[in-house]
Structure prediction request, 260 residues.
Amino acid sequence: MKTRVLTAIWALIIFIPFLIAGDKYFLFAALFLSALSIYEIVKISFGKLNKSILLLSFLVSIGVFFKKQIDNEILLLGFLTIVFLMLTEIVVSNHTVKIVDISTVIFLSFYVSIGFYSLYNIREIGLQILMFLLLTIWVTDSGAYIGGMKYGKRKLSPNISPNKSIEGSIIGTLSSIIVTIIFYFTTDLFTNFFIAIFITLFVSIVGQIGDLIESAYKREYKVKDSSNLLPGHGGIFDRFDSILLSAPLLLIIIDTLKIY
Prediction:
């Protein structure tokens, strides 16, 4: 527990200045976190570090983050070339690199890159909405953990995450309403309380699905944590699993409901 708390404190000390500064500073932070997550994914998927696939995966992240600065046709051609070269590795390696592993890395490289790029875009919209997202995920996780420990009886998804319960998930989701109340009455982020509740519950539920997706990936490759980069917490992919799915969908809601 002491290691876990100390790691969390140091991580916050490093992360918060980038969070507050925003702009290109947070862009760099998000891209760096994306690169670290991709590093973890490549290492897990192949059981060791495949440098050529790692480089190509990094290029996916760079393409996603700087797509506005690149012509659409060139960007599409670049992505297709990356995918082609990754698939070519299957033949070059004499099939020691498997199709399923390459497919997993391709998909997750885009998944992670889009997730962190969405996080950056949310920060560009405003610090309040980003804090809303982060706090909703944190309160949901905490509520689900505490609620599951005390009231958990029925397994939520035993084949993916045996320790998670339906009761814990429900308590975690309902706990997120606390975030709605805080932001509705102390900020100008929301003007309609019921829409605020809807968005909060949506982010909370989607975040839990994102958590289970990452857990399923780790279970398929028989690893406990994505890495040991954060002692007591696992890896970067572990810590941001809920946000990587909820951030892009929150952006869609923001655009659809014209919140900003």
Observations:
- The longest strand covers residues 161-165.
- The chain has a mean pLDDT of 92.
- Residues 2-257 form one domain.
- The chain is about 80% helix and 5% strand.
